[in-house]
Specification:
A five-stranded mixed sheet has the order 3-2-1-4-5, covered by helices on one side. The chain has a single domain, classed as 2-Layer Sandwich (Nucleotidyltransferase, domain 5). The two termini are 24 Å apart. By secondary structure, the chain is of the alpha/beta class. α1 crosses α3. 35% of the residues lie in helices and 26% in strands. InterPro entries: Transpos_IS110.
Length: 122
Amino acid sequence: MATQQSRPRIGVLVLSPDFVKSFRLFHFRRKEMESQEVKYVGVDCGKKSIEVVRINSENSLERRQFSTTESGINNLLQWLTLNDIVGLEAGSQSFRIAKSILNKGVQVIVLNPGNLATIYQS
């Protein structure tokens, strides 16, 4: 049996009861949405604002900006769809936002900015 070379981890799954519950909910909803098109969303969390870019099916970019307040995060959650795959960097507010997105049933990948050089080289 051939062994596979280890690849750098791109995402991080935080195993807490809330995340596991959300992860199961995501898989249930993802099966419902398999026939629809997946869109990728990049999120940059700042102190006062959240910059978001979605790549649409026509490869066009849809840019949005939300505040980091509860109402801003709720607006972000309303804007996201179950077919989105969201990537955001690990930071002070990222895990709070990632948890909210997971609770909606949207897939989230939290990226460690310290690993970007490793990811870039692979």
